[in-house]
Target: Asparagine synthase
Amino acid sequence: MSEDGGLCPEGWVTRRLKGWHLYHCPELRVAEILATNGRRVGWFLGIGVAQDGSLFPSGARLPVAADDTTFWSVAESMIEGVAGRYAAILSDGREERIYHDPVCDLSCVFDPTSRIVASTLLLCLHRPLVRNRRMPHRGPLKGKHNYALQQTADRYVKRALPNHYLSLRTFAPVRHFPRADEVFEADEAQLDIICERIAERLKQVTTTLLTNFDCVLPVTGGNDSRNLLACAAGVLGQTQTVLFTHHINKMSGFDCMIGQQIASVLGQDVQVIDVTDPVHQDQFQPDAVRRLRWDVGYATGYQTLEPGNGVAMAVQLAPAGQCLLRWNVMELMRANQYPRGDAAGFNLKHGLSKLRVAPEIDSTAEAVWGPDYMMWVDTLPENAKFKIYDFAFVEQLLPNTMGGTLWGPVPQFYINPFSDRGMIAAALSMPAPIRRRNRINRRIVDLTCPALNDIPRTNAFKKDPDNHTSYELLFART
Model:
């Protein structure tokens, strides 16, 4: 997006909103947002599932006019209830704002100096890159640490934050969620209520995606893909969904074996893609891998390179489909950001370590990045400051490690059904010790497809010596 009308990449589509030009590739889904009088007040980019379970439609109508004093509160209420991977651009005639999906999976960066907004750094830059000396790009590209705290490879370009809208008048992010009256403290007595709420919404979102798009769904031996499959169990046979697993090494081989058991219970086929098969070896030539990794580096704006040969090629070998369903946001249900042992209190050094802002989180890293982290903490309302690690995962880690990396040369539109503020709030409201004991994950499966809980998860599966023998037989090379 730019106020300059001459920046449209070749072959892209141009749209207008007040004084702004929106450019997007023709494959990206775009829907109009209308005011009550039928006047267009915005655009919805990407894929979203509304609170009633419907796919976010073209011509979605707000029940207020643009000049109504409640316009922004009504618009925010609508957007905050949408799950998926999207951005909503809205105008009341006086100000334009960009609202993001719950974890910024449809990533967004902005340059306040040139007043340009884009999905990735290199699309944002219409000037030479100014190196970011605070967080040089070599560290993230070499896997030594992550970008975080709105940093990019350019000194002036910043990454947008989930739960904040970006004002195109001031080019400042402004928090709109969570609100001060949200309740994020539940106890064990409320476990069933919380799990039922998550299971109902996850089933609703997953079903909407599977029945409206040709989807591919990775199957692993862990909790998260099992949750999605359990929620999808009732509609899989009525859709074009393709289940698949990857064999890259022994651990992923266990995923394949567990995946076959899961698919059997669901009455579905699963494609086992053996990346180590000699038939794929031409794609592992050093020049081909190097080109692919740098394609990812450029496409993501120096955010990442593919981590290795097997992973890089596995992405390319995934089955064809419109959407690939991911589950990364569900890690909240295992309280994966909390320190081992006592989960009470807050430790800044631990918080920085979970974001991986530097190769080593020592006193120097704390002095450099601690103030930035605490400035972000200060934007949280008091009721959310008991869940700092969880909100840092949603607002700081995921936008850089997921949203910021999803623009690589992948053949499908990646989307997280769990990217939903209601499910996220419900999950993080439970105490960390309960989440760590995997009680939420198992209960969700019990509520949606209990037979899947009879199949061992990876950690239990790998402890059985017979499974190691079966692996060697299954993936033996003659």
Summary: The first strand starts at residue 13 and ends at 17. Residues 188-275+317-332+399-474 form a domain with the Rossmann fold fold (CATH 3.40.50.620). The two ends are 55 Å apart (CA to CA). Residues 191-212 form the longest helix (22 residues).
